[in-house]
Design a protein that fits this description.
homodimer; alpha/beta; Enolase-like, domain 1; TIM Barrel; 2 domains; seven-stranded parallel beta sheet; globular
Chain lengths: 436, 436
């Protein structure tokens, strides 16, 4: 079995006006659907970041991928790593780029997109679910969390291609609770995360308290302001939400850089507050993991098969977290069902991953889904590993074609939340760290 | 595909009168050949430690293994770990037991024996070499080192079952060099390791210098006294052999415990001597790895699929070493061809493993080999990954039966190098640490 052809489908997916410390989501998120077609007629698929950059990075390995044995992933990783610009560990820690957009991690993202497609092809060739090809699952169902966002009214898309939105405007504690109740009712999630760093900290503290009031301590709570706070503010929020966040929850990337988080940690611990700090901004690659441990700046690392380097890299991170005594959760970007199944298989083979994974899936709709049979279904907040080979899903090529059409019509080829914010909310808006 | 039957073959393998700080090798080493027979008639094999203890540990998981899907290794590892007596990290660091005999690592050894047999069965079912089932190889050929021992005259076996020995007595620098020349001529090894801790340090220093004199700096040199030296003596040897060991070589387990090695390291570095310290005694499990890093007591960890927990655990250790900036080599015990192929496939999937692996294989003979076609051949010091499914070797059942017959006749069921030493060399001999 060799790879005969690599196919890339850049698509656009409607996305609502969600807010974060990075700015505002554009009406369409960009994704790329990847296919590897083998000499024996099997097609393996994956989903990764979209836009010109990711597509160019994938194009740059086409000649290496076509003709490759999909089992030979170690050699391919070594090849791709050798191509990568390797920078010093410290240089990779940054807070300005959305996780998954760091140019220094391009090679890990490109490898991941090919690796997952190869593993899907192998699974289809052998009639085995993907997670059982890489050592076997440690769980049959993967829990996800209700991933709440502040947002403006309306859904994704634009012009005559607008998606209805069931959540409306979410800019108050009451609206946060309402959206969470909607999501929990529809998907059955049992853990809750709020994307913060959008409103003044006191309002976000009030939102978390309102969630606890409504859902009680059985629903662990997280807040993630994406580095929007100073060290002082981070400590203040950590102290204010000590009861709410320490109960199976966490405080995620409150301020910039591992060193800043280490200071927050020291000050919280000095107050007898052991709320764990989680991160996918201060820790984005393996070089950061020992620093996170040494400084105690991060107790829980948010993995992501898309930018850490695929399923094997997820397992590697799980092993590292286990050995170093770190916790593990999972980050998400806007995505469709192929990515959701990738995240699910990845989580299924990571024993150290004990927190419900993030997912943006509730913010997308069936209009944009590219898999046969429509959207992946959740069971009590979990995605169940299907009893099907590989990832367990197939592409609906008509839907892929519609996504490509949308992509072609779009004037942008890169995510720019700051530009969207200026266009729609405040023409002078800039991302400032710390904002509060 | 399920496992229908687990078969265990305890065997005895003739072994020469090799010396180490543990004492004297008995005339026979004990091994266990493991088979898993699947419902579709495929047999996967492995080789592990021998004697009553390892067999009993394997028997204890028979009911879990029989009926198991060989792909579901993560779940099996979780099961077996839950059964294991878990001790605190510090309690596991010990210097008295031969690596692979620590009762606290029983679960890792038992898992490894089953994992390798399962992966061999999967490889045979899919027609793929084992190393290509677990992410793919990073090398096609695995280098081994000339693993030299001090020994008394004569070969292995006893009574009417004695093996001829081509090496004779090795108790002087000249004999060490002679045995090395024999081994290099026969196998083509390009790196050299001397098992020390047997003669007074000055004699072993002289042996290493004689090897350098004979082979020159293109043959990296190692010495491993298995903790026989005090910290002062370790520093003295490190200083005396600074030129010989720092040139791609290493100083392995000179003294007891990570803390002792950390002190040796500090004193060597203070003298501008950065000879790396290697270990498979102070570091025998994953809990030791962060300690090795933090204390800087160990720069190179000797892996071993047999007692670290199989091929997956080797990959995990390789990943850990890469992330933590540690070197990686491979330890060996007496073994036959099934283990040699296991070590070869394991090394093939570990990018961090950059030193030639240890092997006792030259000390065993074709009389005892249990694989079809006789002994594994070396090419220029390397074992080449065969273009055959699984491990690439099959059992010669007549030879296995002969090994079982030898085992049945033996009066002992456990390795005891101290007892052998008392019986044949010095009735009052005891292992003393530090001896020098």
């Amino acid at each position: 079995m060799k790879i005969k052809q690599l196919k890339l489908h850049p698509i656009a997916v409607a996305d609502g006006p969600l807010r974060s410390s990075y700015g505002l989501h554009a009406p369409y998120a960009l994704r790329t659907i990847v296919e590897v077609v083998t000499t024996d007629g099997i097609t393996g698929i994956s989903e990764t970041y979209g836009g010109d950059g990711p597509v160019a990075a994938l194009e740059s390995v086409r000649s290496r991928v076509e003709g490759m044995d999909p089992f030979q992933l170690t050699a391919f990783r070594q090849y791709i790593n050798a191509q990568a610009v390797e920078a010093a560990g410290g240089a990779r820690s940054q807070t300005w780029l959305v996780p998954g957009e760091n140019p220094l991690d391009t090679h890990a993202r490109t490898f991941a997109a090919i690796e997952v497609a190869c593993l899907d092809a192998i699974g289809k060739a052998l009639g085995r679910p993907l997670c059982d090809l890489v050592g076997g699952r440690c769980r049959d169902r993967v829990p996800y969390s209700a991933y709440l966002f502040y947002k403006h009214a309306g859904g994704g898309g634009m012009g005559d291609d607008v998606r209805e939105d069931e959540y409306g405007e979410i800019l108050t504690p009451e609206a946060v609770v309402r959206s969470c109740k909607q999501m929990v009712a529809q998907y059955g999630f049992k853990e809750i995360k709020l994307k913060g760093g959008v409103l003044p900290p006191e309002e976000e503290i009030a939102a978390i308290r309102a969630l606890r009031q409504e859902f009680g301590p059985k629903y662990p709570l997280r807040i993630d302001p994406n580095c929007a706070w100073s060290i002082d503010t981070s400590v203040h929020v950590g102290e204010s939400l000590k009861g709410e966040l320490s109960d199976g929850g966490y405080l995620e990337d409150p301020c910039a850089a591992i060193e800043g988080m280490a200071e927050v940690r020291r000050r919280l611990l000095a107050n007898g507050n052991d709320t764990p700090l989680a991160s996918n901004v201060a820790t984005t690659c393996f070089a950061h993991v020992p620093v996170a441990k040494e400084t105690d700046g991060v107790q829980i690392i948010l993995s992501d098969p898309h930018y850490w380097g695929g399923i094997g890299a997820q397992q590697k991170l799980s092993d590292l977290c286990e050995v170093l005594g770190l916790g593990m959760s999972m980050h998400s970007n806007n995505h469709l069902g192929v990515s959701l199944m990738t995240m699910t298989h990845a989580a299924a083979v990571c024993p150290a991953l004990t927190y419900a994974c993030d997912t943006h899936y509730p913010w997308q709709t069936s209009v944009d889904e590219v898999i046969v049979g429509g959207r992946v279904q959740f069971e009590k907040g979990c995605v169940v590993i299907p009893d099907k080979p590989g990832l367990g899903v197939e592409l609906d090529y008509d839907q892929v074609a519609r996504g490509e059409e949308r992509y072609k019509k779009l004037p942008y080829r890169k995510r720019d939340d700051e530009a969207e914010m200026c266009k729609h909310v405040d023409p002078n808006w800039k991302r400032i760290l710390p904002r509060w």
